[in-house]
Amino acid sequence: MASTTSKSYYWKGFRDGTPFIFVAIPFGTLFGVFATETGLTIIQTMAFTATVFAGAAQFAALQLLQDNTPTVIILASALAVNLRMAMYSASLTPYLGSAPLWQRAFAAYLIVDQSYACSIVRFEKEPLMTTPQRMAYFLGSVTPITPLWILATFLGAVLGTKIPESWALDFALPITFLAMIGPMLRTMPHVVTALVAITVSLLTVAVPYNLGLLIAGCVGMMAGAQAELWTLKKEATS
Fold first, then answer.
1. In this structure, which long-range contacts are made by residues 40-45, counting pairs with CB atoms below 8 Å and at least 24 apart in sequence?
2. pTM of the entire structure?
3. For residue 210, what pLDDT is reported?
4. Could you tell me the pLDDT band of residue 1, with boundaries at 50, 70 and 90?
5. Average per-residue pLDDT for the chain
6. By C-alpha distance, which of 230, 233, 224, 235 is closest to 196?
7. Average pLDDT of 148-163?
8. SS3 171
9. In 3D, which of 118, 154, 136 has the Cα closest to residue 46?
10. Backbone torsion region of residue 156, taken as left when φ is above 0, otherwise alpha when ψ lies between -120 and 50, otherwise beta
C-alpha cells in the first residue's frame, strides 16, 4: 500500500511540474543559443548544463564570460546566484532529511526553482505525508523538466544564431520566476520578503557584476524573518 501511495504522489508531482515545461523548453533553448554565441562548443555547452544544472547561474556566468569578466568574479557571481539552492535545501531538510543518503544526494542535484516551488507548497498543504511520499512527489515534479531542459539546450546549441530574434525567447526567465513566486506569497512574511527584495534590487541595480541581487536577497530574507517574528509575537499575545 505504501509503494502504491508513493507512486500516486510521484504522478501528482509529475502533473504539478508539467506546466513548467512550457518555460523550460524556450529557456533551455535560449541558453543553448546564448552559449554558442559566447563561443562555447556544443560539447562544452552540454557539459555545462548537465553539471551545473542551474539556469540562472548558467546565464549569469555566460553573461560575465561574454563581458570578459575575470574568472574569479565569474565563479563568485555564479555561486552567489546559486546560493538560493542552499536556502532551498535547508527549507526542504525538515521534509526530506530522513530519506536515505543516496536519495538525498540525488534530490540535491535535482533541486531547481520549479521542483522546490512545487514541493514546498505541497508539503505545507499536506503535513502528514510520509518521507517516501514526499521524495516521490519531489522526483515527480522535476521529471518532466530535467530531460526537456537538457534536450532544449542541445537544440539551442545546434541551432545557434539561426533562431530569429523576433521569437523573443528571453521572455522565459521572468515568466518562470513569476509563476513560482505567485503561489508562495500566502503569508505576510512572504509578501514582506518579496517586496523588500524587489525594492533593494532596484536600488542596487548599478552594483557591478549583478551583485545587487545577492544584496537584495539577503536584505529580503532578513526582513521576512523579522516579519515572521513579529507575526508570531502578535499571535502569542492575542
1. 40/157, 42/154, 42/157, 42/158, 45/153, 45/154, 45/157
2. 0.69
3. 66
4. very low
5. 82
6. 224
7. 83
8. helix
9. 154
10. alpha
Packing angle, helices 146-159 and 42-52, rounded to 10: 160
Asked if 96 contacts 131 with a C-beta cutoff of 8 angstroms, the reply is yes
- The cell for 166 is 523576433
Phi-psi sector, 150: left (phi>0), alpha (psi -120 to 50), beta: alpha
Contact by Cβ (8 Å): 114, 98: no
Question: How far apart are the C-alpha atoms of 190 and 132, rounded to whole Å?
Answer: 28
Residue at 10: amino acid letter: Y
Q: Cα torsion for 134, 136, 141, 146, to the nearest 10°?
A: 130
Q: Can you list the pairs that 185-193 forms with residues at least 24 positions away whose Cβ atoms lie under 8 Å? A: 187/231, 188/227, 188/231, 189/224, 189/225, 189/227, 189/228, 189/231, 190/224, 192/223, 192/224, 192/226, 192/227, 193/220, 193/221, 193/223, 193/224, 193/227
**Grid cell locating 2:** 505504501
Give the pLDDT confidence of 27-72 residue by residue, as tens digits. 888 888 888 877 788 898 898 888 887 777 787 777 777 767 777 7
